[in-house]
Amino acid sequence: MAKETPIDYRNLMIYQVYNRNHNESGTFLELVDDLDRIKDLGTDILYLLPIHPIGMKNKKGSLGCPYSIQDYRGINPEYGTLEDFKKLIEETHKRGMKIMLDIVYNHTSHDSRLLEEHSEWFYRNGNGELANRVGDWWDITDLDYRNKELWDEMIDILKYFANMGVDGYRCDVASFVPVDFWIRARHEVAEINRDFIWLAETLDFGFRKAIDRHGFIAHSDSEMYEAFDITYDYDVMEKMHHYLEGKSPLSDYLERLRMQESIYPQNYVKLRNLENHDQKRIAYLVNNIHQLKIWTSFLFFQKGATMIYAGQEALDPNLPSLFDEDKVDWSRYNEDGIADLIKALAGMKKDRIMAEGNYEIHTVDYNDLIVLSYENSHMIRYGIFNVGLKTIELPVEFSDGEYKDIISDDTVYVNDGKILLGKEPLIFDVTK
């Protein structure tokens, strides 16, 4: 792992925005108008999907995919001008937030400026034709990192935006790019900003195995921690979805989470999210408001940084298209207090124990119950998440009495060594 990664990155809340579909105009300047609300949610980092001009050759949909980049140094005119983007950076910093860009370094569009100028830097198949390693990504063509001149150019682009004031990069399918490239990139960008944040989109087990089978680079999360501060939790998300879709028991998911504790470095940071631009909305998978609140509370209680995808706080069940105009539906914003809950949870997430405490995923004798805890020298913080909503009398190992829920401020009662669980998440501290 990047040895200098501070464990307080586990306290972070990241807010993901797809500019095109975030608001009416889809521009940087209209996003500036939303920054106060975004900050008020508890956001530390504003993360933007790619902001560059989109390739038109072999494009997907009516507007094209933001991950099919035509010019790495340019700004998508849909969003505004370079000066508008600089204004967004300035206003984000004024509010005490950092700004993170999505960097797509595995591939470009078929009509990219880089391809026009340096076709020798691109991957070719056995027939010598430009190609990509993932068949259904037909709107892009892959780069070939065996060309060290390519490294120089791509790192220069990273330094260009770092000098502009960008604070971090989320690196798309980072596992497809040699980890030695990322190590060098991190080192050179650190000369501009030593606190720059690096987030890697890593791969789920099945995808990585499929790529590896064809002999292509597909680095593991453990390898990516050599260069990155934070990696995605795709190594466990599939099991969460299987549970929500009724395909496997909750215990399978929890066992994957326990596995992370044994295979990653001691100071590892995972990106915890219930949804993102590639995954189904949690309001689509879970349509019971009590369960949504429980899963949202569980999300923030997990060990790692937390990400919210814009619209999640409005209970939007629709995953916006990447390729067409498909606006977030804000009509249910804060319905049933979901935005207020996120704000309260983000505040709780900042507590030191959430980064430094000894973390445990407890084994319980109930099929639809998650019990987590953080422990330090003077207290234990418990998170109890009754995702099945069944009435349960849960045996506990601490004294009878009254405890205060950190989020709701309600009283948690322990009688005869048991807590009665219902439809609300419980987060409370027990003093030693």
TrEMBL record:
Name of one Pfam family that matches: Alpha-amylase
GO biological process: oligosaccharide catabolic process
Superkingdom per UniProt: Bacteria
Family annotation (SMART domains): Aamy
EC numbers, comma separated: 3.2.1.1
EC primary class: hydrolase
Every Glycosyl hydrolase family 13 catalytic domain range: 16-352
UniProtKB keywords: Glycosidase, Hydrolase
Single GO molecular function: alpha-amylase activity
Protein name: Alpha-amylase maltodextrin protein
Lineage: Bacteria, Bacillati, Mycoplasmatota, Mollicutes, Haloplasmatales
Protein's gene: malS
